[in-house]
Amino acid sequence: MTCLCFSDSHGVTRYIKEALNRHRDAEAVFFLGDGLSDIETFVNADIGKRAWFFVRGNCDFYGSVNGIEARKLEVITLEGQRIAFTHGDLYGVKYGFDGVVRLAENSSADIVLFGHTHFATEKYVPLLLSDRGVNLFNPGTVGGIGAEPTYGVLTLSPKGALFSVMNFK
After folding, report:
1. Is residue 7 packed enough to be buried (19+ CB in 10 Å), middle (13-18) or exposed (0-12)?
2. pLDDT tens figures, 128-165
3. What pLDDT, on a 0 to 100 scale, did the predictor assign at position 56?
């Protein structure tokens, strides 16, 4: 299963449109906050085509998409992978990964998707006192605010997950 991951569009939608056109086969899209009002048009155009999952960021004063309230944290299972996704502001991601690692431990997540920093990150972290670890993935800023615009491609299968950070060059 191919999933697109976007975060931090902050009013810039042209790169979301470009990424959606590049990956017409993507079956799901994760929007990780700070630009919820930017995605409503895309969600409406995609009805019946792919699933959209979204959370609210610290700059999202408009807290819903198509009347569906956006929460600060969601946890779902796709292709046998437990995925926690959040914007990241409540977990201190600008100062390190301890908060999202605790989130993974508390939610039994295999993957934590987050944004907020505007910089793409992919990291595997072994969990203490456990025989497993967690994949942390931040797709960067699709709006290109303070950094090069990027997005993520997450490929899920029952055997695991692959993470790719994509740019627009």
Report:
1. buried
2. 877 889 999 999 999 999 999 999 999 999 889 999 99
3. 97
**Neighbouring residues of 123: CB distance < 8 A, sequence distance ≥ 6:** 97, 135, 136, 137
Please give the structure tokens belonging to residue 45. Answer: 């155009």
Sorted by where each starts, the structural domains of the chain and their CATH numbers stand as 2-167 (3.60.21.10)
Q: Residue 26 corresponds to which tokens in the numbers above?
A: 């993507």
| Structure tokens belonging to residue 156 | 């899920």
Largest CA distance in the chain: 45
DSSP label at residue 70: P
Angstrom distance (rounded) from CA 156 to CA 53 = 15
**150-157 and 160-167: which strand pairing?**
antiparallel
pLDDT of residue 144: 94
166 backbone dihedrals φ, ψ, rounded to 5°: -115, 145
**Residue from 1, 2, 12 nearest 150 by CA:** 12
pLDDT at 155: 98
Closest C-alpha to 65, from 77, 82, 53:
53
- Residue 42 and residue 30 in contact, taking contact as beta carbons nearer than 8 Å: no
